[in-house]
Amino acid sequence: MVRPYLPLNALRAFEASARHLSFTRAAIELAVTQAAVSHQVKLLEERLHVALFRRLPRGLALTDEGEALRPVLAEAFDRMADTLDRLEGGTVREVLNLGAVGTFAVGWLLPRLPAFRKRHPFVEVRLSTNNNRVDIAAEGLDYAIRFGRGAWQAVDALPLFEAPLSALCTPHLAAGLKRPQDLAERTLLRSYRSEEWPEWFRAAGIATAPPPGGGIVFDSSLAMVEAALQGAGVALAPPLMFARQIASGQLHQPFAIYAGTGRYWLTRLQTKGLTPAMRAFHNWLLEAASDPASTDAAEGPQDAGA
């Protein structure tokens, strides 16, 4: 069956009228006359041999056929607009939907993203942060960067680097800490991972950890360290992720004792095919992660595209 030719102006006139349920408001949006919109919709109805609207004394109502067509056209126009945006300037822009645990995003990734943008200027990174609980499929993510031991179902997990934990606090509080045992007299801020402080004390050679205090259990190292900066107690967090605060003197690491409870991983759904943007980010991230303490992410030559 040969389908009738459907003019784009008629489709646009219908989609706008269906959204507003008004030829007048659709005409204002499209910068044409109300008569022109009504004519285009009538032309479309004639081509399809169906009524798309019921004309009412006070506006419009969609017929069943109009209800079926409206979401299809709305999605099509949205996809067209998105593609045209990506083609802006004569080059294709690739979108990368990236989720990352907040501590990693703020403490490590954001300072290095300009280097990625310089190397791959046609990749648009859309970053969302989380507290290490993420549903890649439901959130439509290409990649998710998580902390843990790499045991997630239905995902490919690529190890990036470890970020061992250490005690962090204000310089004033640190001045009274001469040995790890002194922490027994301080409020120990903790995350929902209850094993972290016991692991650190074992690394310090202390078999029994003092009980944490403060009454707050944090789901983010960012919030925990902010509480420590406000003098609420001693945080147990990865110094690598707070290098700027340590370098500025806001935060102090009183003991060179670390506990390793996991590492950061780059994860994606096993069913997800690699896009050019995903390949570009994957390669850059592995290179930058090979020396995680360096703030100088290798830039290399710019690509002509993603």
Descriptive account of the structure:
With 306 residues, this protein is α/β, with parallel strands linked by helices. Helix 1 (8-20) packs across helix 3 and helix 1 (8-20) crosses helix 4. The strands form 4 sheets. It has a 5-stranded mixed sheet with strand order 4-3-5-11-6, covered by helices on one side. The chain has a two-stranded antiparallel ribbon with strand order 1-2. It folds into 3 domains: 8-88, Orthogonal Bundle (Arc Repressor Mutant, subunit A); 103-161 and 263-289, Periplasmic binding protein-like II (D-Maltodextrin-Binding Protein, domain 2), CATH 3.40.190; 166-248, Periplasmic binding protein-like II (D-Maltodextrin-Binding Protein, domain 2). The chain has 11 helices and 11 strands. The chain has helices spanning 8-20, 23-30, 34-48, 64-86, 102-119, 136-139, 171-174, 196-203, 221-229, 243-248, 276-289, and strands at residues 53-56, 59-62, 94-101, 123-130, 143-148, 155-162, 166-168, 190-191, 217-218, 235-237, 263-269.
Describe the structure in brief.
The chain is of the alpha/beta class. The protein is built from 11 helices and 11 strands.
**Ends distance:** 40 Å
- Secondary-structure element pattern, one letter each: HHHEEHEHEHEEEHEHEHEHEH
Classify the beta-strand content into a percent band: 15-25%
Total helix count? 11
Structure class: alpha/beta
Q: How are the strands of the biggest sheet laid out side by side?
A: 4-3-5-11-6
CATH superfamily of the largest domain: Periplasmic binding protein-like II
Indicate the CATH topology of the largest domain.
D-Maltodextrin-Binding Protein, domain 2
- The dominant shape is elongated
Q: What's the alpha carbon Rg, rounded to whole Å?
A: 28 Å
Largest sheet: 5 strands, mixed
The domain count comes to 3
CATH class of the largest domain: Alpha Beta
Mean pLDDT: 88
Give the % helix: 25-40%
The low-confidence parts are 297-306
Tell me the number of strands. Answer: 11
**CATH architecture annotation name of the largest domain:** 3-Layer(aba) Sandwich
